[in-house]
Amino acid sequence: ALGILAGLGLAFYFGKRDGIKSELWIDGLLLAVIAGLIFGRVVFVIANISYYSENLSEIPLIWRGGLSYHGVLIAGLIFLAAWTRFKGHAFGQIALLLAPSLALFSSFGWLACWLDGCAYGRQANAGFLVADLPDSFGVFALRYSTQLLALALSLLIFTLTLAIRQYRRIPWLPWLTLLLLSAARLVVSLLRGDSVPMLGSIRMDTIAEGLLIIFCLLAILVIIFRKPAIESRIA
């Protein structure tokens, strides 16, 4: 919740600086957040259906935690894109406005995971990035510090994105931000010990991050090569 508020404040700052009125994006962003929360919960329940099939009354209790990051992200992007198209706004302009906010929100999310013990690391011998940490059930053991590693990487990406956004309006910055966040999450997923659906011996979140990286690369290439083509037609 604090991450969403901080992201909104940052978006308002860039919007005011760039002369983008808040009524052009605030409703779409709030719709994307609501859709993301609902769809993120649905995906989480499906991924943990063995538990929720025996505890149906807990499905709507979203305040107890339990959201799929990928469900939130995909639903949020789809609804924001649909809203901008319906209103006749430029999705790229709104996405550029929100790029630093996405990295900031990710940082708050990982901080929350560290405080609550979710997305905990798998057990390991003493060494770099290893500490006596609890899992989500409160069981302590030597584990990889996945949450703090992801938090540090997210803050680094936020700093980079913020610096770029402060001085240059690169149209593919939102996809670069998402690509870097996905790459960081992919690395962290290799050290996580929490239970997730598997495809053979590979975690499904690892696969999802790989697919997001490919999608972001394609989006960046499309934007880069489409812009000269548009400029040449205008000339």
How would you explain this protein's 3D organization?
This protein is mostly helical. The protein has eight helices and four strands. It starts with a helix and ends with a helix. Strand 3 and strand 4 form a beta hairpin. 34% of the residues are buried. The model is unreliable at 229-235 (pLDDT under 50).
Cross-sheet strand order for the largest sheet: 1-2
**Global shape:** globular
What pattern of helices and strands is seen along the backbone? HHHHHEEHHEEH
What's the total number of strands? 4
Q: Round the Cα radius of gyration to an integer and report it.
A: 19 Å
> Structural class of the secondary structure composition?
mainly alpha
- Percent of residues in helical segments? 55-70%
What percent strand? 5-15%
Number of helices: 8
Uncertain stretches of 5 or more adjacent residues = 229-235
Q: What is the mean predicted local confidence, pLDDT?
A: 91
What's the end-to-end separation, in Å? 47 Å
* Largest β sheet strand count, sense and barrel closure: 2 strands, antiparallel
Entry keywords:
mainly alpha, 8 helices, 235 residues, disordered C terminus, two-stranded antiparallel sheet
Summarize the structure.
The protein has 235 residues and is mainly α. Helix content is 67%, strand content 6%.
Helix and strand layout, with pairings?
Elements: H1 2-18, H2 26-47, H3 49-52, H4 69-87, H5 91-116, E1 130-134, E2 140-144, H6 146-167, H7 173-189, E3 198-199, E4 202-203, H8 204-234
Antiparallel strand pairs: 1-2, 3-4
